[in-house]
Specification:
The protein is an all-alpha fold and about 625 residues long. Among the domains are: about 150 residues, Serine Threonine Protein Phosphatase 5, Tetratricopeptide repeat, CATH 1.25.40; about 120 residues, Tetratricopeptide repeat domain (Serine Threonine Protein Phosphatase 5, Tetratricopeptide repeat, Alpha Horseshoe).
Length: about 625
């Protein structure tokens, strides 16, 4: 301490002993001129001014002290200073908010609530709903189970004209009510939230579901009309449409929608959803042979998918401790606690003498968590020890990867295939098995076997040719689909062709914007626009965006899956082939790229002629 500072400290003490407040203040101000960052002295100056009734000077000094304490995270020490400031400025809600934060940091929950509530009421009184929403959010955080407070946050955002913030908070409340099983509240809040976001698909679907539940089927159709135009291939949209049409006495329309729902579910590898939709369709039209056949195939596929690895003899636990772990994992799955199951299995595997049953259990945990990409390597790891059940594991893997044939690819009913064709032969390769099944009339099984063969050798030209021939034959047998909707009635909406389901959901404006964003290198923004658009054209843009991000592997996966599922009559199919050929070129798969370019040249000779020919010549030069 400097001599001058020491002298001033001694003088301040003398003035204090004499009761000379003005003298003390004068000395303290002198000390502050020497050391402006002395919080202790500045706080004393503020308190003296406060006692003298000089509120403005007191506030200035105490504010500096409070800001310094908050900046360094000394929340407990800041409480007393902020309380003094609140006494000076009781009309300042920001001070109440800061005081509440300090109380909360010090675990004074009730005091924090009182401060947040005071800030909330003050900002509402000042006509500043967005600032009030900030206080309401803090107040809601102190009582996470009180959804009325969280709903208040959404209402304040709405009152402040922040439609995005209001919708986001309404959704949070809706999801919590949904988790609690309060579907009545979900519908009520969705209806309220639609005032801020009348075109929001999720809110419209929640409102429609509530209306269906209450028997207001015509009102449900009114909400679904808007949803259908923006998300025509969304399973929940189709499910609610079917229920609504049934409710207004139009089972024929419900029947057609359920057929489309089954198709969409199958494309998304939701085989349980596919089977459920076909069961409902069969109940509406018990004599329909086509639906009965599709249902039989779907039930068979679902049954195969549900043959979990943990239920196979090859992966049975051989000791009680392992068995207990597998059973615990299955119990955790049943209650949605997949994280706990995964952690326990990983820990147990490190010390297990035979981790095989635990590895199989891990695969099923990851499947239950909808992490199929993570589950497949575990399945591949246990596959060599599957023995006679190897084909069951391969079949399940193919189904999980979405490689099971769609309805359009099932040329003959697999149930009519000769029994001998259904049984694998010892020593038979997957390609040979596919050939035998195809010759025996089991085109579904053949396609499954050939696709499994490609997992080992993706560039097997012979197998690729067989799959292409099978798909071409399937497309040739397809007939024109029936109309999804008949003439419009009151409370329903206009007739729409099935092909228009994809076109309506193609999101034309968003797609154009996404292409423009890719062109200027804004890949993340482009991906955000196209991920929810269900069309082949959108998948092309998505792949291009991944290429901009230098993620060629993901781009290749996107285009492979999209072209496998698409019809060659899709307007975007030629560009999809060209994009896929480019990706194969980038990953050094030149033969596959050439095959695709030749297919493109035959299919659409006028498509990007110069680019196609240049790429073909370049690939041919590389092959020399």
């Amino acid at each position: 301490m400097s001599n001058e500072r020491q002298r001033l400290e001694e003088e301040a003490l003398q003035q204090l002993n004499r009761g000379n407040v003005e003298g003390v203040l004068r000395v303290y101000l002198s000390i502050l001129r020497l050391d402006p960052k002395d919080r202790r002295i500045r706080q004393k100056v503020g308190e003296i001014y406060l006692k003298q009734g000089k509120a403005h000077d007191a506030e200035r000094h105490l504010r500096d002290v409070a800001d310094s304490l908050l900046k360094e995270g000394s929340h407990r020490a800041a409480v007393s200073v902020l309380k003094q400031l609140v006494s000076i400025r009781p009309d300042d809600p920001q001070l109440q908010l800061e005081l509440g934060d300090c109380y909360l940091a010090g675990s004074y929950l009730q005091d924090a609530k009182a401060s947040f509530d005071a800030a909330l009421r003050s900002w509402v009184g000042l006509g500043k709903p967005l600032l009030a929403a900030n206080a309401a959010r803090r107040l809601a955080a102190t009582a996470p189970t009180d959804l009325t407070l969280r709903l208040r946050v959404a209402e304040l955002h709405e009152a402040g004209g922040d439609a995005v913030g209001a919708t986001a908070n309404y959704r949070e409340v809706i999801e919590e009510f949904r988790r609690r099983g309060r579907t009545d509240e979900v519908g009520r809040i969705a209806e309220a939230a639609l005032k801020s976001a009348p075109e929001d698909v999720g809110l419209l679907l929640d409102a429609a579901a509530s209306r269906v539940q209450q028997g207001e089927h015509k009102r449900a159709l009114q909400a679904l009309q808007s949803v259908f135009m923006s998300a025509p291939r969304e399973p929940r949209t189709l499910d609610l449409l079917a229920q609504a049409f049934e409710g207004v006495g139009q089972p024929e329309r419900a029947f057609k929608i359920l057929g489309e729902l089954a198709k969409v579910s199958s494309e998304r590898t939701d085989y349980a959803g596919e089977a459920a939709a076909l069961r409902r369709a069969a109940a509406l039209s018990p004599g329909d042979a086509d639906v009965a056949a599709r249902l039989a195939v779907a039930e068979d596929r679902l049954g195969r998918l549900e043959r979990k690895l943990t239920h196979l003899k090859s992966f049975e636990a051989t000791d009680e401790a392992t068995l207990r772990l597998v059973v615990r994992a299955e119990t955790f799955i049943r209650f949605g606690l997949t994280d706990r199951a995964e952690n326990e299995l990983r820990e147990a595997m490190s010390g297990a003498s035979d981790p095989l049953p635990l590895q199989a259990a891990m695969a099923e945990v990851l499947v239950a968590a909808k992490r199929v990409a993570d589950a497949l390597p575990w399945m591949e790891q246990v596959l060599p020890r599957a023995g006679a059940e190897r084909e069951v594991v391969l079949d399940r893997m193919a189904l999980l990867k979405g490689e099971a044939p769609s309805d359009a690819e099932v040329i003959d009913d697999p149930l009519t295939a000769p029994p001998s064709a259904q049984t694998a032969k010892v020593g038979e390769t997957l390609e040979e098995r596919g050939d035998r099944l195809s010759a025996g009339g089991d085109q579904t099984g053949a396609l499954l076997a050939w696709r499994a063969a490609l997992s080992d050798d993706p560039l097997n030209e012979a197998v690729l040719g067989k799959i292409a021939a099978l798909r071409t034959a399937a497309r040739a047998r397809d007939t024109a689909p029936a109309r999804l909707f008949e003439a419009p009635d009151e409370g329903t909406f206009a007739e729409i062709e099935p092909d228009e389901l994809q076109e309506a959901g193609a999101g034309g404006d968003s797609l154009h914007q996404a292409r423009a964003l890719v062109a200027v290198g804004q890949a993340d923004a482009a991906l955000a626009l196209v991920r929810n658009i269900d069309s082949l054209a959108a998948r092309v843009v998505e792949a291009q965006a991944h290429r901009v991000r230098a993620d060629v592997a993901t781009a290749l996966d996107v285009m492979r899956e999209a072209t496998n599922a698409a019809a060659d009559t899709d307007p975007a199919y030629p560009e999809a082939l060209f994009e896929l050929a480019g990706l194969y070129t980038a990953t050094q798969k030149h033969r596959s790229a050439l095959r695709l370019l030749e297919e493109l040249r035959d299919l659409e000779p006028s498509h990007r002629t110069t680019d196609v020919e240049a790429l073909i010549r370049g690939l041919q030069m590389l092959g020399r």
